[in-house]
Every structure is written in structure tokens, then in C-alpha cells.
Amino acid sequence: QVQLVESGGGLVQPGGSLRPSCAASRSIFSIYAMGWYRQAPGKQREVVATISSGGSTNYADSVKGRFTISRDNAKNTVYLQMNSLKPEDTAVYYCNARFGAAQFWGQGTQVTVSS
Fold it and tell me: What mean pLDDT do residues 3-14 have?
């Protein structure tokens, strides 16, 4: 079992930045592929960015060039640097850990982009 705790969401104006983080409970964090997903009201959950155990990254087209996913295996933590935020980025952001058939989710952190 892996417990994931997100933090760092909040309210920001359009064009601003946020850096949510996700701390994992297990010291074998390094073997897990990690990801950030989001779900806006009335919409399905969608992938935002993923990072493999080896550090390879992938991004949704809507966030390419604005968001950066990174991981610190020594701290069992994954980050999502979000720049140039837009109102359409407003959603609950969820952290995901995956290893083989095992998959775990955090409780989510709210990100609201509004003036």
C-alpha cells in the first residue's frame, strides 16, 4: 500500500504559477511511475503529466510548455510546476503512483485560476 498526500494547490490569478507536491509514504517510491491527473467539475479525470521511474516525462498537449513534472526520490516526492496558468486549468489535481497492476491515488488538491 502506498499513501499519497498532495499539497500546494490554491487560488491564483491567470498567468500566475503554482507548484503542488505529492509525498509518498513508502521508501521504495523510486520504482513507481508517478503522474498528475486533474478533474474539473462535470468533466472526466484526465492525465496532465507523467514521469517514469527512470525520469522520462510525458505531458498532455494542453499543458506542454507550461507545466513541468519532476521527482525527488530521496524525498519520496513528486512535483508539478505550473506556469502561465489559465482559467481552464481550474480543477482538482490528483497524484497517482503506479507499479505493474498496482495503482494508488492521493486525495486531491484544488487549483483555482481566477481573477
Answer: 95
